[in-house]
Amino acid sequence: MKRYERSGSVCQGQTETGEADAMFILENGATLSNVIIGAGQAEGVHCRGTCTINNVWWADVCEDAITFKQTSGTSYINGGGAFHADDKIIQFNGRGTVQVKNFYANDYGKVARSCGNCSGNGGPRNFIMDNVRAVDGGVLCGINTNYGDTCKITNSCQDDAKYCDRYQGNSSGAEPSKIGSGPDGTYCTTSGVTSSC
User: Fold this and answer.
1) pLDDT at 13 over 70
2) Which superkingdom (predicted)?
C-alpha cells in the first residue's frame, strides 16, 4: 500500500493527456497490486494489453484513473476504488472485455466508459461489473451500442439508480450523442442492483 504521486501540479483537469502522463504503464499480461495513487498525477494507469489490477486505490482521479488499450481478451479490476473523478474512472479504448469486481467509487462522472469518439473507433467492448458500490456520481457504465458494446451489472449499487447510458459512438472526434439510459435487456443488463448503498 505504498502511495505514488508526482510533486507539483501535474493534473490538467479534463484536458486530454496521454500515456506519457501515466503513473504506471503496464505491458500485456502485467499485474499491479496494493498501491495508492495520490492526487499528484494526471493519468493513473495505462494498460497496453490485458492486465490485472488488484486492490489499487486512486485518492483523487485527474483525467482518467485507468485506460485499457488491449486489442482483445479480458482485463480485471479486483477490489480497490477511486475518489473525485470529474469524468471517467475507467476508460476503455481497446477491444474485448474489462471485468470489475468488488470496486468502490465516490464522487465521479462515470465508473466506466467505452471510448465514444476515438480515431479508428469500434468494438465490441464489454464491461462485466459485480459488487460495485458507487455513490455521489453518475452511471456505472457508458457504452456505444452501434459498436455492439455491452455492460452486464450484477449485485451492485448506484445510489441514484443510474446504471447505464447508451451512446452512438463515432471516430470523428465529435461529442457522441446519448441515445438512451438504463437497462435495455440487450446491451445493458442488470441483476441484483439497488440504490441503497
Assistant:
1) no
2) Eukaryota
For residue 178, which amino acid is it?
K
Give the Cβ contact number of residue 72 at 10 Å: 10
**Cell numbers 484536458 label which residue?**
15
Nine-digit cell at 130? 459485480
**Beta 52-54 vs 31-33: how paired, if at all?**
parallel
Cα–Cα distance measured from residue 60 to residue 82, given in angstroms and rounded to the nearest whole number? 7
Contact 34, 1 (CB under 8 A): yes
Which residues share a beta bridge with 179?
none
Q: Which fold is adopted by the domain 2-191?
A: Pectate Lyase C-like (2.160.20)
Residue 15 in this model has a pLDDT that exceeds 90? no
User: pLDDT digits over 72-108, tens only?
Assistant: 999 999 999 999 999 999 999 999 999 999 999 999 9
3 state SS of 19: helix
ω into residue 124 within 30 of 0, thus cis?
yes
Q: Give per-residue pLDDT as tens, 103-156.
A: 999 999 999 999 999 999 999 999 999 999 999 999 999 999 999 999 999 999
Measured between alpha carbons, how far is 40 from 137 in angstroms, rounded to an integer?
22
Whether 113 contacts 89, CB under 8 Å: no
Q: Does the pTM exceed 0.85?
A: yes
